[in-house]
Structures are given as structure tokens and as C-alpha cells.
Amino acid sequence: MIDPTLDCPVPSPAPGLRPRRRAPAFARTAGALLAAALLLSGCGGGPPKARLEEQQQQREFAARGYAPSGDAVTVQSLAWRLRGDDVRLSLALPIGAVDGASPRPVVLYLPGLGESENAGLVWRRAWAAAGYAVLSLQPLDDDAMAWSSDLARSAEFTELGRRHYADAQMRRRLARLDELLAEAQRLGRQGEAPWRALDWSRTAVAGYELGAQLALALAGERQTDGAMLALKTVRPVAAIVISPQLFATPDPARYRDVAVPVLGLTGPDDSDVLQLVRDLAWRQAPFAAMPPGRGWLLSANEVRHAAFGGNEPRPEDAERERKRIQAAEDQAQSQPQPQGRRGAGRGQRGQDAPVRMAPVPPLPDYRQRHAQQLGLIAAQQVSVAFLDQEVKRSETARVWLAGPAQAWIGRVGSLSSSR
């Protein structure tokens, strides 16, 4: 049987008034990355032998990649009352960093449109297992509540995207982010846990969709008016941009002054359900336009847009999906098989035997799920190596990305850098 701890984990608890700590998940980095990737494809059953063979292939693939020693990880949900507003944050830390004795480099994670601070847990766990303190927050409440807005209820999705991705909204988001980071740094200077465990001098910024827009801007993308945006509180040394939303052909001139290395994660199947990005090539174009060595791009085959979000299924959703798949498989196996012609003896004309077939619920595309999991393993390991190279200045990571990485990725995707 499939290990249920890999397929259906319990998600992070909802934020409360006090920090709450998850039980640590002890795993080496390769195992953690594989387990995280498995989550993104749901909790289906299926032919046990085939599923187990696929998982074995995924473990072998992960073991051959970039897998330094991994740390145990704890995830805390935190809540503040700041200037009259409720603020919710999620912090993933290596278990050894909780006491703050050895501050860790920071990855600031910015969720997608309509997502909360609890989003992207698969990415955040992978980076925390590699030794980073990963802080997730959604700076603006209206971004987090986008899918329950009047525009969303009216199916005005184009207008919804235009409003939330507007330059003015991004500047509001940036200002609010600066306020929140200033408070986190103030608490760290006062020696408060867990904030004293964060080394802000070594910070990378990462984001998905809406968060990718701000991460790319903080890396040095020029805005439509020619301005360059920056935080007052921190200067990121690298950026990870996951499924960037670009609504028109990117102007290469906007990326020629990118100041820090940027890793883009996308792929040929990275199509959002709202189809706001009309040409998927737009997601990849900015990285080739960046200065030599600044733009990195991993194009992962058969990874769909929702999977790039890095979200774990809720236990009730995972159980519902498991039951649906099991019912579909049971029904498919119990269907009577057509008998063709019967009753035809010598000199007699046979008759077709009608067979009434009940509708069969659709089964998952297991081949696609397996390919997607391999792509996610590649994306997570490449992102860890990228962070190690740019934030920790790891020579091991630099050598791996320069050569062995692409050979390991193989047909799962392609890794390139700007020249």
C-alpha cells in the first residue's frame, strides 16, 4: 500500500492568536521533495503495482538529483495586531533554527491571487528542509479574498485580473509588505522568537502568480512607466518566479537591468483555467532577456498551473478524491464485457447480444500525474540548488547547475540560463 503520510498529510493549522508549531517531519531533502511532489497530484488509488512502480521511479529520480542533507522542519502559524489590522503569517523553519542560536537565510514567499499565507507549503517545506527560514504572507487582504469578491461571483475574471495586477495595486502591496517586514525585523532585534532566527542580510524572494509579479519587480524588472521598485527593509539577493502572469508580449527592455539572479519555474502546460495568459511563451520570455547569467529558466513538462502553486490537499478533499477514484475503478472492473455474437451454431445465423453499459466515472490520467510528479521533483531540487548557489554561495550547487542538472532532468524538462 502507498504510505498515507506521503499522499495525504495534514495541512498547516489555521492562524491563531498565538504561534502554533507543527510536529516536525523528519526527512532527508530528497525524500521530502519527493513526498511534496506526490501531494500535488492528489491521493488517488489505482492499480497498486503500477502506482508503486511509479513511486519507485520517482524516488530513484530524486535520489540522483541535487539532494544535500535535509533538516527536520517545523511550520508555525502566527498572528499579529498591527495598526488596528489583523495580520497572519506562516513561518517554516529548520527545527534546529527555532532557538535562534544560528540565524538562517530567509526566503520570503508571496502567494498567488486568492491565496492565504498558508499557500505554497510544498515549496516552503522543501526550502526550509534545505536550511532556510521561509516566511509566507499575503500583504493585502483584498488579494487574499479575490475569489469571493463581487467580480469573481459575477465571473468578471478579466476585470478581476486587471484590477489586482494593476501597477497601483502592486505599489500598495509593496508598501504594505515593507511595513510587515519592518515589524518582523524589529521583533528580531528585540530577541523575540521566532524572529531572531532570521538572517535578513541573506534574503531571497519567491512568489507564485500574483506573488511572482512582485518578486520579478523586486529583482529589477522595470515597470510600464520605467520605474524600478524596491523594498526599504531588505535587498533580496535572488528571486524565484513561479508561473508569472504576463498579459501581453513582454518588452525585453524591461528586463535588461535585472539586478539579481532570477529562476523562473513554468512549463508548456502551465495554462491557468481563466486563460488570462493567452500565449504561454510569454511566461518564459523575460528570462532570456535578462543580463547574462541573471536569468535562469526551468521548463518542466506536463506540470499544470495549479500544481505549480505548491498547495497540499485538505484531508477531507483528499479523502473525497480517494473515494471517487476507488468508485470509478471498481465500476470499471465490474462492467460486463461485450460477448459479440452468440448462439450461432452450424448453419445458424448468430445474433448480437446487447450489453447495457453503466456510465463510468472518469479515472485520473495516471500517466500525466506521474510525469507531473517528476517535473515537480525537478523544479523543487533545481530551486534548492539555485538558492544554495545564490544565497549560500555553495560551490557544490554552482557545479551541479552548470552541468549535471540538465543531464539529470533529461526528458522531464529543460534548464537554461540567459546569455
Helix-strand pattern, N to C? HEHHEEEHEHHHHEHEEHEHHEEHHHE
* Sheet with most strands: strand arrangement: 1-2-3-5-4-6-7-8-9-12
What global shape is seen? globular
Q: How is the quaternary structure best described? A: single chain
Ranges where pLDDT stays below 50 over 5 or more residues in a row are 1-30, 36-46, 340-358
- Average of per-residue pLDDT values: 82
Radius of gyration: 24 Å
Q: In terms of structural class, how would the helical and strand content be classed?
A: alpha/beta
Q: What proportion of the residues form beta strands (DSSP E)?
A: 15-25%
Number of strands: 12
Largest sheet: 10 strands, mixed
Give the SSE map.
Blueprint: H1 4-7, E1 20-21, H2 29-39, H3 48-63, E2 73-82, E3 85-94, E4 104-110, H4 121-129, E5 133-136, H5 141-144, H6 150-153, H7 157-164, H8 167-189, E6 198-208, H9 210-219, E7 238-242, E8 262-266, H10 281-288, E9 295-300, H11 305-308, H12 315-334, E10 341-342, E11 351-352, H13 366-390, H14 395-402, H15 404-409, E12 413-417
Parallel strand pairs: 4-5, 4-6, 6-7, 7-8, 8-9
Antiparallel strand pairs: 1-2, 2-3, 3-5, 9-12, 10-11
Concise structural overview:
By secondary structure, the chain is α/β, with parallel strands linked by helices.
Q: Which labels suit this protein?
A:
alpha/beta; two-stranded antiparallel ribbon; 38% helix
Structure description:
This protein is an alpha/beta fold. The protein has helices at about 5, 30-40, 50-65, 120-130, 140-145, 150-155, 155-165, 165-190, 210-220, 280-290, 305-310, 315-335, 365-390, 395-400, 405-410; strands at about 20, 75-80, 85-95, 105-110, 135, 200-210, 240, 260-265, 295-300, 340, 350, 415. The strands form two sheets. The protein has a ten-stranded mixed β-sheet with strand order 1-2-3-5-4-6-7-8-9-12, sandwiched between helices. A two-stranded antiparallel ribbon has the order 10-11. α9 links the parallel β6 (about 200-210) and β7 (about 240). α2 crosses α3 (about 50-65), α2 packs antiparallel against α4 and α2 (about 30-40) crosses α13 (about 365-390). The protein is globular. About 45% of the residues are buried. The model is unreliable at about 1-30, about 35-45 and about 340-360 (pLDDT under 50).
